[in-house]
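Design request, C-alpha cells follow.
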C-alpha cells in the first residue's frame, strides 16, 4: 500500500497549498487575463496539463489535484458512487462554453499579448488579500457540498473545468499511438472479488472493464489504487503503448 500512502500524502499537501496555488487553476483569471491580452499562470498550467496528459493521462487528478484531495478526505463522510453516463458530459459542455469565451476575449483583447505567470498574485501567492477568502471558500464549498451530498469525486465526474484538457491529451495519445501511462488488465487472472471496484476513488466499475477487456477511459485518473488492491495481480500500471 506504500504507493497509495504516497499518493494520499501528495493530495493532502496539495490541498494545504491550495490558498497559494488556487489562482493558477482559475478558469476566471484566464478570461480576465485574455481581455487584457495577458497569458496568465492558469493558462500556462492548463496548457502543461494538456501536454503532460498526452503521456501521463489524468495523473494530475489522481496524485496532485487539491480538489481531488479534498474529495478523497470526504470519502469517510459519503463514499457513495455517483451515477455515471450522460451526466459526465456536463463538464465538457461547461468547458466548451468557457474555452469559447477565452478565445473571444483574446480576439477582442485591449492590448498586445504578453505573458504574466504571476498574474493577479502577490509575489506568486494567490490568497494574499483578506477579501480573496470569499472566493477561496466559495470554490471550497462548490466542491465540498456535492461531494458530501452525492459521493465519490462527483466534482471530477460532472463539473471539473480542468479534466477535459487531460481527456483531450489522452485522446491525442491514443490517436497518435504514443506510449503513455495507463492501466492494463489480464482478465484470465481476475476472480471477480471486486476489491478494485471498492477501492477506485472514481467509483469506476473496474471488474466490468477487466471482463470486457475495455480501455480504462476518460474517467480513470491513473491513481493505481485498483492495481495496488488486486489480490491476483490482474492489473498492472506503467508506461505502455496506447491502444
Ligand atoms: S480504474 Fe484504477 S487507476 Fe483508474 S481511477 Fe479507478 S482505481 Fe484509479
Ligand atoms: S481486484 Fe483484481 S481479481 Fe479482484 S475483481 Fe478486481 S481485477 Fe479481478
Amino acid at each position: 500500500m506504500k504507493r497509495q500512502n504516497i499518493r494520499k500524502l501528495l493530495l493532502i499537501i496539495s490541498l494545504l497549498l491550495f490558498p497559494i496555488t488556487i489562482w493558477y487553476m482559475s478558469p476566471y483569471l484566464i478570461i480576465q487575463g485574455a481581455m487584457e491580452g495577458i497569458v496568465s499562470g492558469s493558462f500556462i498550467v492548463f496548457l502543461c496539463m494538456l501536454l503532460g496528459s498526452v503521456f501521463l493521462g489524468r495523473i494530475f487528478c489522481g496524485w496532485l489535484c487539491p480538489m481531488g484531495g479534498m474529495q478523497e478526505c470526504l470519502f469517510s463522510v459519503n463514499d457513495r458512487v455517483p451515477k455515471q453516463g450522460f451526466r459526465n458530459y456536463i463538464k465538457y459542455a461547461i468547458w466548451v462554453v468557457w474555452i469559447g469565451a477565452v478565445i473571444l476575449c483574446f480576439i477582442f483583447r485591449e492590448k498586445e499579448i504578453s505573458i504574466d505567470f504571476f498574474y493577479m498574485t502577490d509575489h506568486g501567492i494567490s490568497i494574499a488579500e483578506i477579501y480573496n477568502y470569499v472566493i477561496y471558500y466559495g470554490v471550497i464549498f462548490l466542491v465540498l457540498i456535492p461531494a458530501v451530498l452525492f459521493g465519490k469525486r462527483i466534482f471530477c465526474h460532472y463539473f471539473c473545468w480542468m479534466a477535459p484538457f487531460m481527456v483531450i491529451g489522452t485522446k491525442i495519445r491514443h490517436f497518435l499511438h504514443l506510449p503513455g501511462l495507463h492501466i492494463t488488465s489480464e482478465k484470465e487472472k481476475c476472480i471477480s472479488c471486486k476489491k478494485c471496484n471498492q477501492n477506485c476513488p472514481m467509483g469506476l466499475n473496474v471488474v466490468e472493464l477487466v471482463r470486457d477487456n475495455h480501455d480504462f477511459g476518460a474517467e480513470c485518473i491513473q491513481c493505481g489504487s485498483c492495481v495496488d488492491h488486486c489480490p491476483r495481480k490482474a492489473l498492472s500500471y506503467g508506461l505502455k503503448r496506447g491502444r
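Comment from the thread starter after seeing the answer: thanks! DSSP finds 13 helices and four strands in the chain.
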